[in-house]
UniProtKB/TrEMBL annotation:
Gene3D superfamilies: Aldehyde Dehydrogenase, Chain A, domain 1 (3.40.605.10), Aldehyde Dehydrogenase, Chain A, domain 2 (3.40.309.10). Residues 1-195 form the Aldehyde dehydrogenase domain. SUPFAM superfamilies: ALDH-like. Belongs to the aldehyde dehydrogenase family. One of its GO terms (molecular function) is aldehyde dehydrogenase (NAD+) activity. This is Aldehyde dehydrogenase domain-containing protein. Pfam families: Aldedh. It comes from the Eukaryota. Keywords: NAD, Oxidoreductase. It comes from Pristionchus entomophagus.
């Protein structure tokens, strides 16, 4: 999905526990990567061979930069063909590493640490893309900070729900390099029309603005 999570920014006190849980979840994927028409399938194929090449190149670049592949990192060959890859978790990189800022369009998740909410928001906002984001918290002050002018700079700003989804009644769209207007919601029709202000004078006289008269 275009709204999938690329960076998981975890508080340092919860980092190891969260990483272990996610690794166990990713262990379940390989048996459910197949034809999307199969009801057991959870993940389908990448769009094309070029997508697989970008996936492999990005993982290589992450390793060169000092990253560690915790899960995945390989291409899956199936007798039926297709461009299947294993969802991948990468750790050990700095938050501003070039490969993390890159939009690869492949199932690669970078897990990062943070200390304060301000630091996490800065990490969230430092990339060139700004489509979807989400904060998980039980503190109401964090919620309002995240959703406010000093919070996430994305077009979709969620709280306690995943990034990979959008309410169809809301205006869907992003900011920065993923900006391009909004679809759905109350403003969706504005993306498909050219608006103009029209005034028609049905009389045989030519009225002038502000009551001006030439005599």
């Amino acid at each position: 999905r275009c709204t999938k999570t690329r960076r998981l920014i975890v508080h340092e006190s919860k980092y190891e526990k969260v990483l272990e849980h996610i690794k166990r979840a990713y262990d379940q994927f390989e048996s459910r990567i197949s034809d999307p028409l199969d009801p057991n399938t959870n993940i389908g194929s990448l769009h094309d061979v070029q997508g697989v090449m970008k996936y492999k190149a990005t993982i290589t670049d992450a390793l060169v930069a000092g990253g560690k592949v915790e899960n995945g990192g390989k291409v899956i060959d199936k007798p039926s063909g297709g461009n299947y890859v294993l969802p991948t978790i990468i750790t050990g990189l700095k938050h501003d590493a070039e490969v993390i800022h890159r939009e690869t369009f492949a199932p690669i998740l970078y897990v990062l640490k943070y200390t304060t909410l301000d630091e996490a928001i800065a990490i969230n906002n430092e990339v060139a893309q700004g489509l979807s984001s989400s904060l998980f918290t039980q503190r109401i002050d964090n919620v309002f900070k995240w959703m406010g002018p000093k919070g996430s700079d994305c077009g979709i700003v969620n709280v306690n729900i995943p990034t990979a989804g959008a309410e169809i009644g809301g205006a869907f769209g992003g900011e920065k390099e993923t900006g391009g207007g909004r679809e759905s919601g109350s403003n969706s029709w504005k993306q498909y029309v050219r608006r103009s202000t029209c005034t028609i004078n049905f009389s045989k006289h030519l009225p002038l603005a502000q009551g001006i008269k030439f005599e």
